[in-house]
Amino acid sequence: MHLVTGCKGHLGKFLNSKFQGPGLHRQNRKRIKKNSYDTIIHSAARRDESDLYSFYLDNIKLTEQLCKLPHDFFIFLSTVDVYNKNNQYAHAKLISESIVKNLCKNYAIIRMSSLLGTKPNFITKTIDNLPLVVSSSAVFNCILYKDVYLFIQRLIELNHDRFGGWKLIQNKTFNLVASNNCHISNLYHKYNSTSTFGHLQYHIGDQDGYKAYNIMPELSKTSLENVKRWIHEYRPNIKAKE
User: Fold this and answer.
1) At 132, which helix (H) or strand (E)?
2) What is the pTM for the complete model shown?
3) Could you tell me the end-to-end alpha-carbon distance of the chain, in angstroms, rounded to an integer?
4) What confidence tens digit (pLDDT) does each residue in 4-58 have?
5) Is 240 helix (H, G, I), strand (E, B) or coil?
6) Element (H, E) at 107
7) CA 78 to CA 81: how far, in whole Å?
8) Which of 6, 53, 125, 127 has its CB 3.0 to 4.6 Å from that of 44, i.e. a possible disulfide?
9) Quick one: which of 195, 192, 191, 193 has its CA closest to 228?
């Protein structure tokens, strides 16, 4: 049985619908902790830093508690923002990664770039012609919820491969990213956006996804290709410039 945390959130809800586990959220934590699991997929996180104690409990403390549950394989969903460490959320993820490494005997850490799914972000808002907080010089990298699910599924398969496949993933950290970045201005013009830009300077940085591509070569798509895939699934009536 697989446990997906954060199943009331956008990505967690998507993953839990695929893995069909009990799902962990704030209201059922005590009940869940009585069980043991084949795989724990830790997706839960709190970005709101206004209450630092709740921020600590829902990020760092929860990770520690989950690592102590009986399990065979622990998959922690992190962020490529840990490379820049430009906010408290990135620091919390980096601390949580360290907790996983120290408390779990068999784990994989997935550092994800921006996610395309049901939750709006400045990438999807550009497509939807909504106001942006980022400037026109913003540089992004993006993957789909579906990519995260397929990669996790592949990790679980390899974890059960006792002919050596598990060696490719055991106690490894993966960057789950598109094969290249994209300037928001390119996306803006490609899809005839009327969004207004803000002043926030954002550059995701250059991260190499070769370890993830080695396991799943089909994930090696550009950010613009991934936006096109998202549009096909979520906004089928929108067309790009020829």
Assistant:
1) none
2) 0.94
3) 47
4) 998 888 999 999 999 987 887 765 666 666 678 999 999 988 888 888 888 888 8
5) coil
6) strand 107-112
7) 9
8) 6
9) 191
The reported pLDDT for the residue numbered 200 is 93
Alpha-carbon gap, residue 172 to 168, rounded angstroms: 8
Distance of alpha carbon 199 from the chain centroid? 25
Could you please report the per-residue DSSP string of 9-35?
SHHHHHHHHHH----B-GGGHHHHTT-
Q: Measuring CA to CA, how many Å separate 27 from each of 3, 6, 136?
A: 15, 11, 41
CA atoms of 120 and 128, how far apart (whole Å): 9
Nearest to 143 by CA among 63, 221, 203: 221
Going by C-beta distance under 8 Å and a sequence separation of 6 or more, which residues neighbour residue 52? none
CA distance 8 to 44: 9
Q: How far apart are CA 179 and CA 176, in angstroms?
A: 9
For 94-116, how does the pLDDT look when each residue is reduced to its tens digit (9 = 90+)?
A: 999 999 999 999 999 999 999 99
Q: What is the mean pLDDT of the chain?
A: 91
Q: CB neighbours (10 Å) of residue 211?
A: 14
Structure tokens at 236: 């089928």
Dig out the tokens for 110 from the structure: 């997935």
Query: Which domains can be identified in the chain, with CATH numbers?
Result: 2-116+141-178+208-218 (3.40.50.720)
* pLDDT at res. 30: 63
